[in-house]
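Re: [ENG-882] Designed sequences occasionally contain unexpected residues at chain ends

Forwarding the minimal case from QA. Structure tokens:
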């Protein structure tokens, strides 16, 4: 009747009632599905009115609005999985939200955790990939670090690429059909491009960024193709980001840009 689940059931007419543990601390813990960038946490009363509101930064969630903020402590942390994400000033990374109080009981009708949106907008000409795969995944955790995280448009998630048994480290993005690829953009977690490659009909070796010497982008055709070369883009149905010297790396998002103002599909050799 008063279990912790009542605090997250989206029904303010129910409530959780929490008593102190053996150390005299009363706490309510909410476990998230994965590591999120937590922006705000809101505690609602039974009439759906706001009781307390915490705003988080990379340091803490100490910015509280409410009549009794001094009685409670709210923290965001990572418990379920090790996280080495760099801090972001406007939110706190974590998979666990914990509300604490010394001594007496806590009654919570509803606790809402609000994440910070980090879905980037597609750029003009960006391809929607069919799928992605990588050489190996950190801790074999496909849910949190799989290749699909590099093509989900979400800058709070990332793929974590480990070397395979042969020592090769790569992320491969399949485009679904042969396209004339103009650029490849590797995005960093806070939005700006980390590395940008521009392609010709020969290769995509023209790179801008601080670590161009460590990574390569290649565009190739896995399916047979006899299309004529075009000078300022490279035909291919697969784009592969590689780290020639091996080792792990991670990609928050990667965008493949094809040539063509309206339709990126080849078949019509009149390029815009």
């Amino acid at each position: 009747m008063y279990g912790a689940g009542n605090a997250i059931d989206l029904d303010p007419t129910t409530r959780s009632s929490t008593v102190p543990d053996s150390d005299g601390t009363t706490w309510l813990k909410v476990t998230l599905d994965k590591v999120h960038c937590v922006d705000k946490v809101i505690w609602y009363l039974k009439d759906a009115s706001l009781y307390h509101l915490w705003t988080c930064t990379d340091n803490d969630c100490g910015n509280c609005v409410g009549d009794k903020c001094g009685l409670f402590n709210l923290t965001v942390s990572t418990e379920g999985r090790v996280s080495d994400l760099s801090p972001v000033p406007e939110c706190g990374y974590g998979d666990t939200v914990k509300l604490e109080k010394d001594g007496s009981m806590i009654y919570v009708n509803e606790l809402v955790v609000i994440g910070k949106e980090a879905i980037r907008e597609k750029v003009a000409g960006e391809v929607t990939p069919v799928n992605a795969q990588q050489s190996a995944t950190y801790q074999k955790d496909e849910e949190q670090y799989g290749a699909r995280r590099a093509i989900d448009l979400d800058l709070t998630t990332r793929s974590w690429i480990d070397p395979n048994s042969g020592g090769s480290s790569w992320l491969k993005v399949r485009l679904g059909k042969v396209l004339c690829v103009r650029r490849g953009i590797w995005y960093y977690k806070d939005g700006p491009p980390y590395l940008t490659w521009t392609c010709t009909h020969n290769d995509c070796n023209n790179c801008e960024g601080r670590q161009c010497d460590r990574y390569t982008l290649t565009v190739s055709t896995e399916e047979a193709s006899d299309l004529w070369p075009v000078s300022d883009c490279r035909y291919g149905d697969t784009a592969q980001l590689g780290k020639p010297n091996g080792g792990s790396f991670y990609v928050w998002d990667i965008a493949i840009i094809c040539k063509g103002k309206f339709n990126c599909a080849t078949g019509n050799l009149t390029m815009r």
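QA comment: On inspection the terminal residues look reasonable. Confidence is low (pLDDT under 50) at residues 265-272. Proposing we downgrade this to a documentation issue.
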